[in-house]
Every structure is written in C-alpha cells, then in structure tokens.
Specification:
This protein has 314 residues and is an alpha/beta fold. The chain is built from 13 helices and 9 strands. Helix 2 runs parallel beside helix 8, helix 8 packs antiparallel against helix 9 and helix 11 packs across helix 13. It starts with a helix and ends in an 18-residue tail after the last helix.
Amino acid sequence: MSILSREIAEIPEAAARLLDRGAPALAEAGARLRAQDPSILATIARGSSDHAATVLAYGAGALSGVVPLSYPPSLASLHHQVPRLSGQVAVAISQSGRSEDLLAAGRAVVAGGGHLIVLTNRFDSPLARAAGDALDIHAGPEHAVAATKSFVNSVLAGAMLLAEWQDDDALRAALVRMPEALSQPRRIDGLDAVLTGGDRLMVLGRSASLGIAGEVALKAMELCGMTALAYSSAEVRHGPMQILRDGYPVLDLTRGAALPDTRTLHPPAPTGLHPLLDPLLDLVPIYVALEQAARARGLNPDVPDRLKKETVTV
C-alpha cells in the first residue's frame, strides 16, 4: 500500500478532526468577518491550495455578495506592490506556509491595511505568524508529495469560515455530515481506463466545481504524467472545444450534456448535501483512481520524480 493511498483513506477522519478541533477558531474568525463586512475577498495561493481558494471564492461570492479575486503573489514578491486593501480581507491558503512569494503577498496585504486570514497545515509557519487570524486545518502529517487530505481540509476550512461569516445554518448542517459522506464509496465508470491507458484528459467544472476540476487536472499531471487541462464548462466553448474530437476523454464534473466526438465521463448523481460541498464528494474516488493508475503505469504515487512536498517559489 502506498503512502498516498493511506492518506486518501484518512480523509474522512481528517475532516472530522477539523470539524471538532478547528471549529472554535474558525467561528471567531467568521464572527470578525461578519462584523467587518468586507466588499472584497482576495485569495492568495498556488497549486492545489489555489484550487481550494477557487472553491472558497465562488462560495463567498454566491453566499455573501462579496467580490472575490485572486491576488497574484508575484505582484508583492517581484514588483513590491502594496495593495490598497484597507477594510478588506485576504485569505491565504498554504499547506506549509513557507513559500517566499506567499509570505511576501501576505505581508503586503497587511501593509496595505487588509486583514489577513491564513488557512494552513503548519500552524508554526512564517505565513501563519504574519496573519491576523491563523487557522489550523488539522489535516495531520501528510508525507506523499501529492496533497489529498490537506486539500480536502483546506476546502472544508474555507466552507466553515464562510458558514460562520454568513451565519449560515444550512451550510453548517451540511459540514457536520461531510465526514460520513466522504467515507461513502463512489465510482466514476470508465475513469480507470482513461487514467491508466490514456495520455490526455480535459476536466470541466463550473462555479465551485471549477476548483475541483483544476485539482483533478493537476493530480493527473503529477501522478500519471498525462496532459490534463481544466476549464469552465462555459469557457471551453470559447476555443478549447476545437481540440475535443476523435474520442477525446472529458471528465465533466457539471454532469452536463455529452460533447460531440468526445468520450465524456460523469460522476454519480450528486448527494444534494450542499452546492458548495457536493463537488468535493466527487474528488475522493478520483484520488483513488489516480493513485491506482499511477501504480499501473509503473510510477511512484508517493514521490513523483520531479516534484517535492514543499514547493518554494519567490
């Protein structure tokens, strides 16, 4: 059994731990957001964490009316910008909290008058120390290079923050049910064959599921060495659709109509738990399929040969 497969199996337990141990601090941070009532929510992240930030951005925009935006860390690290964010909020998401460009962006937000919230699996990290609110996602130690349980807990922590910010009982109730829902077996017919024998994949999402689509495409590249692209199911019609022919494999997380000339795969019917959280339930069986496909291809799912667990960029 690979380290990655064990960490995927720990996802429901990690989710339950976050809901238990992380709830008080997230409730306090949410209450401060409610009192502050920002009109802008900036997110700061890279890689898998940026896909978790996409889920948060769509959720916050839909439920609060706030304008979400992604703040490019290089504006701070390379161009030394101090963003004008007085009275506004930025949420930085990082497993390690050690990347120099994320730290520069976080410090720039504070220098520009913004309130910095950090979601991290390393509560003792430099980025956490720069925050007004440093929030532990309680994923526990994660040793495989590909982030799985820390990604899921980053999404859940963002949803918990949003539920408290908006005083949203429906979202709170759905979050309580997530550990059990994440443990239920789900399967996407045909996905194993595409990941094991194919060399290309397009993943479609929309709104919150766009963040999950980005995560799936990233993991397909990391673990299976295949060319994988993620697009909005609306944006794909503005150009990328031109390459979708001759049975091109498409994983459609929106469960829309099958595209012509493609091999379109759809997840099982949604659970109806919550629009913000349902896409996350599609992800666990995809993680399982990706780990198995990596081994079938003769690849090491724990340590891809060109990647490191902590990616430090400047």
